[in-house]
Amino acid sequence: MSQPAQHPSDSEGLAPHPGLTAPPEPIRMRTLVQLRWVSIAGQMAAVIVAWTMGIGFPKGPVLALIAAALAMNLWLFLNPPHRTSPRRAIGQLAFDLVQISALTLLTGGLSNPFALLILAPVTVAATTLNARQTIALGLGTITMISLAALLAVPLRDATGTQMRLEPLLALGHWVALVIGVAFFAGYAHRVTAELAATSNALFATQMALSREQRLQHLGGVVAAAAHEMGTPLATIKLIAGELADELDDRPDLRQDAISLRESADRCAAILRGMGRAGKDDLHLHAAPLRAVLEDAAQPHADRGPVVEILAEGPDIRRDPAIIHALRNLIQNAVDFAQSRVVIEGHAVGDQLIVTIRDDGPGYPPALLARIGDPYLTSRKHPAERGTYEGMGLGLFIAKTLLERSGARLAFQNGGPGAVVMVRWPLARIAMDARAALGLNPALPA
């Protein structure tokens, strides 16, 4: 358990749908068009206010640039593309960058208080496009900022006096905008990537829980089938035995009857085993703490390290989400243990505490504070892990499912290896296994 959980179940739910071969849209064209309408409205408002105040600027070229943005939006409205590819998205953002930069150049350059809007296209790109495309647009933004500073057409007030910044202040504005390109683009790209990773990991969690629930449904079906098939198999066995006794003078037919009876015995044995595997059906909503921990640990009991369960506690909710989450934690412990994994469970006051510890090398100190984040993969060399490989979702899935049940998790070293402590308020997880199930549902007439 020394490394963040990475096991075959990590990738549940992450495979793309067979019918989805095209990549998702980076951003809808309708969104870009709506943002441009807002930009056009703001630009026209600024032009009208400046005109009213008597500020001098080249009105013809400025209005022509605004008309170009208006024409682009009308064209996209009349000829909407079916999908927005990354190439088309970056082309539209580059158009906005050039249009805003040209307006800034014609209206005072960096002395224009609206020069900050040059950063808008690269910020949008950082939230929708990949790092390479964002860097390309960021370099283009720095270039356009520099051109707007060097080739700026100065504004004039009502008296005709030029409105210019002092050289040192203009340089400061240029540096601030360049820093803004790097900061806003980098920050937006990082936040968007983390949100996307978390969203994908939550989807994997939902798929894992759905799989666990399907397996539990299957267990109930198997138990019911084993019960229902018992009577006809007993009848077949009885009749086959009587036929065998009556066919002493027909050795060939008697042997067939004996084979039929033996096959019925075999089917009965198989169904008894399946019935035991499916005995915990959907009607068993509560179970002793030890039974729940044994259920969670059972798939990993014979994988090498000894799994020891020391649990004395109340009856608790038998929830597929809780069992699956504990199973992930136990698998992580078994994967990295040297020889022994200890699972302890007990109630302390109004808390229920489950501790899972192993004798492996422990969690990497550099990753200890981030354990439970999605896609936190191991730093061990693959040769040291054998065939063990994963996507870093095991602990994230376990942590998410357990926190939804009201638990709090703590990860630490000192078991002598790694230790996971899961703590519930007793009122959130305890259940009375002997409580009445309630009224049976009404059957349709």
Account of the protein in words:
There is one protein chain. The chain is 55% helix and 11% strand. The chain is an alpha+beta fold and 445 residues long. The chain folds into three domains: 22-165, no CATH class; 212-277; 286-429, Heat Shock Protein 90 (2-Layer Sandwich), CATH 3.30.565.10. A five-stranded mixed beta sheet has the order 4-6-7-9-8. Helix 2 packs antiparallel against helix 3, helix 3 (86-106) packs parallel to helix 5 and helix 5 runs antiparallel to helix 6 (167-246). The longest helix has 80 residues, at 167-246. The protein starts with 28 loop residues before the first helix and ends in a 16-residue tail after the last helix. Residues 1-23, 277-283 and 378-391 have low confidence and may be disordered. GO terms for molecular function: kinase activity.
Q: What's the count of strands?
A: 9
Percent helix range: 55-70%
> What is the radius of gyration computed over CA atoms, rounded to a whole number of angstroms?
34 Å
Order of helices and strands: HHHHHEEHHEHEEHEEHHEEH
Side by side, the strands of the main sheet go 4-6-7-9-8
Individual helix count: 12
Unreliable residue stretches: 1-23, 277-283, 378-391
Beta-strand share of residues: 5-15%
- The domain tally reads 3
